[in-house]
Design a protein that fits this description.
- This protein is mainly α.
- Helices cover 86% and strands 0% of the residues.
- The chain is built from 14 helices and no strands.
C-alpha cells in the first residue's frame, strides 16, 4: 500500500508540475510572441549550461550514497552533512566560473543584455545547488511526498508570478527572469528545511566517497547534458530570435509527454533499484521499467504527433504554426531520448555509467556528422535540418544502448526490454487498476 501511494503521489506531482509548466509556457508564448520568446530562451541558456557543466553531479552522488546507506542499515545523516558542505563550496565555485565566462559566451546580438544575464546567472548558480541538495536527500531517504512538494513548489510559484505579471501588464523578459529567481529562492529554502537542515560538517571519508561517486556520474552526465543541449547551442548560434522562438515552442510541445514520463520514472526508479541488494532483482526491475516506459512514451508521443497540426497553434498561438513540422520531427527524437534517459537512471542505480556514456557520445557524434552532411550537400543549416539530424542520431543511440545492455547483463534479453506488445499492455493496465483499487481501499480505511 505504501508503494502504491508513493507511485500515486509521484505521478500526481508530475502531472501537477506538467500543468504548471504548460500553463507558464502558454502564457509566455502567447504574450511574448516568437521573437521575444526566442530572446528569453537565448538569455536563459548560458546560466543553465555552465551550471550543469561545473556542478559535478553532486545531487546524483548524494542521493545514491544516502539510498545506499539506508538500504544497508547505516546512518545517512553523516552523508547528508558532508554533502551540504560540498554544496556550499560548489555554489561559490559555479557562480565564479559563470561570472568569468559569460562575457566571452554571450552572442553579439544579445550583448546589450549582459548585465541582466550576469545578475540572473549569478543568483541562479548560487541558489540551484541548495535546491538540488534538498531534493537529493529527500529522494535518497525515500521521502517521495516531500520530494514532490519541493519539486512542485518552484514551477507553481513561477506560474503564479507569471500570471500576476500578466495581470499587471508587466510581463517582459527582465521581469520573467526575476520571477524565476524568486521562485527558486523560496524553493531552495524549503528544500533544505525539508531535508532536516543538518549543519554542514567535514567528514573525510564521506566527502571522498561522495566526490568519487560524483566524478563517476559527472563524466557521463557531462556527455549527456552536452548532448542534450547541443542542438539548442547550434540553434542559438545560427538562428534569429524568431527562429529560436519557433524551436523553443516545438521542443516544448515535443517534451510534454516525454518530460512527464522521464520525471515520473526518475523519481522512483533510481531510489527503488539502488535500495535492492540482489543484483538479479535489480536487473529484473530495470527491465520492467524499460518495457513500461517504452509503451507509455510511444503511445503518448504518437497521439501528440497525430494532433500536432492543430494542437500546437491552438495551445501556443497561431504565430507559432511554422513550428509544427519541427515539432513532428522532435517528437520522434524525444521518444528515443526519453527512453534513453529512463534507462540511464536505472543503470546509474547499478553504478553502470559506461553504457549511457557511450550511447551519448555516439548520439553527439552522429548528430554533428548528420548536420554537417545536411549542410554540405544541401547548404541547409536551419532549424529543420538540426531537428532531423537530432532525431536520426537519437534513434541510432537508443538502438546501441539496448544492444550494450543485452551484452552487459547476460540475464537481460531484448524481449525483456521490449514494451510494444500485448502482454506489456495487459501488465500495465493491471498495475494501474491495482493502483486505483489500492488507493480507493486506503481512502475507505
Amino acid at each position: 500500500m505504501k508503494k502504491l501511494n508513493s507511485w500515486f503521489i509521484t505521478y500526481a506531482g508530475t502531472a501537477a508540475q506538467f500543468l504548471f509548466g504548460l500553463g507558464t509556457s502558454i502564457i509566455l508564448a502567447r504574450t511574448l510572441g516568437p521573437d521575444d520568446r526566442g530572446l528569453l530562451a537565448a538569455l536563459m541558456f548560458w546560466p543553465a549550461f555552465l551550471f550543469q557543466i561545473f556542478y559535478f553531479s553532486l545531487n546524483e552522488a548524494t542521493s545514491r550514497q544516502i539510498a545506499h546507506a539506508r538500504g544497508h542499515g547505516q546512518d545517512p545523516l553523516a552523508t547528508a552533512r558532508a554533502a551540504l558542505l560540498l554544496h556550499v563550496g560548489i555554489a561559490f565555485w559555479v557562480s565564479l566560473i559563470f561570472a568569468l565566462a559569460l562575457p566571452f559566451l554571450l552572442q553579439s546580438q544579445h550583448m546589450h543584455h549582459l548585465q541582466t544575464v550576469l545578475v540572473y546567472g549569478l543568483l541562479f548558480s548560487f541558489l540551484t545547488p541548495f535546491h538540488l541538495y534538498g531534493m537529493a536527500v529527500l529522494s535518497g531517504i525515500g521521502a517521495f511526498g516531500k520530494v514532490n512538494i519541493v519539486r512542485l513548489l518552484q514551477p507553481f510559484l513561477y506560474f503564479v508570478f507569471i500570471f500576476i505579471l500578466l495581470l499587471l501588464y508587466k510581463l517582459q523578459v527582465t521581469t520573467i527572469l526575476s520571477a524565476i529567481i524568486v521562485a527558486l529562492f523560496i524553493a531552495a529554502i524549503l528544500a533544505v528545511a525539508f531535508s532536516g537542515a543538518p549543519l554542514p560538517a567535514w567528514n573525510r571519508n564521506r566527502i571522498r566517497t561522495l566526490t568519487k561517486t560524483a566524478a563517476r556520474f559527472h563524466v557521463m552526465n557531462l556527455a549527456l547534458y552536452v548532448g542534450t543541449e547541443l542542438d539548442k547551442l547550434l540553434v542559438i548560434r545560427l538562428a534569429s530570435n524568431e527562429e529560436i522562438g519557433f524551436y523553443a515552442i516545438a521542443l516544448a510541445y515535443a517534451m510534454l509527454g516525454a518530460g512527464f514520463l522521464v520525471s515520473s520514472y526518475s523519481v522512483m526508479t533510481y531510489a527503488e533499484i539502488a535500495s535492492l541488494t540482489d543484483r538479479s532483482k535489480q536487473v529484473a526491475k530495470m527491465a520492467q521499467y524499460a518495457r513500461h516506459a517504452m509503451l507509455a512514451i510511444v503511445l503518448i508521443n504518437g497521439m501528440a504527433a497525430v494532433a500536432a497540426s492543430w494542437a500546437l497553434p491552438f495551445i501556443y498561438g497561431a504565430e507559432f504554426a511554422p513550428a509544427v513540422p519541427i515539432a513532428l520531427v522532435l517528437l520522434l527524437a524525444m521518444t528515443a531520448k526519453g527512453l534513453r534517459q529512463i534507462l540511464d537512471r536505472a543503470l546509474r542505480a547499478l553504478l553502470n555509467t559506461r553504457i549511457a556514456l557511450l550511447s551519448e557520445l555516439l548520439a553527439m557524434a552522429a548528430f554533428l556528422l548528420l548536420f554537417a552532411t545536411f549542410q554540405f550537400y544541401s547548404g541547409r543549416k536551419d532549424i529543420l535540418a538540426i531537428s532531423i539530424s537530432l532525431a536520426m542520431a537519437q534513434l541510432l543511440a537508443l538502438g546501441f544502448m539496448l544492444y550494450m545492455m543485452n551484452r552487459t547483463f547476460s540475464e537481460l534479453k531484448y524481449a525483456d526490454m521490449w514494451g510494444l506488445r500485448p502482454r506489456t499492455m495487459r501488465n500495465m493496465a493491471a498495475r494501474l487498476l491495482s493502483l486505483a483499487m489500492g488507493l480507493v481501499g486506503n481512502k475507505g480505511n
